[in-house]
Amino acid sequence: MRSMSLLAAAAAACLCLSTPAFSQEEPQVVRQNLMKEIGRSVGALGAIAKGEKPYDAAVVEQSLTTISTNIQAFPDQFPPGSEEGHETEALPAIWEKPDEFRAGAEKLHTEAQALLASMPADQAGVGAAMQRLGPVCSDCHETFRAKKQ
Q1: Residue 75 contacts by C-beta under 8 Å, 6 or more apart in sequence?
Q2: Gap between the Cα atoms of 136 and 41, Å rounded
């Protein structure tokens, strides 16, 4: 009887490893989650810049910090073999031009860090920050991300 219980527990443990929580360790999922957080941060900054939300220094700081932190980890989530799966929008150029890809990520990190150092102090400042971040994001998306259908 005891061995049946142990066998059942072992089987349950194996099933847990094949759940979605396990797949979150896959690089496609990790990079998608990193980019979703960046997208939410850009959205928060955009809402302030457009006057849809009031200026909030904590939101601005948190958003810029998230962008800076996540983009640093982002290039490491594209190992060979992760070109497909999980509805990835990554283009082959990422693996063909890894130095250019990393340089784009570093450029966004540098911009976010510079903005954090000078910390936009009002809605206009956030708008100016968006004008600095936007082209960097767009350049990378144009070169390394498949267009959404």
Answers
A1: 98, 101, 102, 105
A2: 15
Tell me: the pLDDT tens digits for 11-69?
444 434 433 443 457 999 999 999 999 999 999 999 999 999 999 999 999 999 999 99
Strand pairing partners for 56?
A: none
Query: Which structural domains are found in the chain, ordered by start?
Result: 26-144 (1.20.120.10)
Tokens of residue 67, six digits:
């962008």
- CA dihedral in degrees (134, 137, 142, 145; nearest 10)? -140
HEC states along 95-135? HHCHHHHHHHHHHHHHHHHHHHHHCCCCHHHHHHHHHHHHH
Could you give the C-alpha distances from 57 to 29, 53, 120, 124, in angstroms and in order?
A: 30, 12, 8, 13
Confidence (pTM):
0.81
Structure-block tokens of residue 134: 């936007």
Go through the chain and tell me how many residues it has.
149
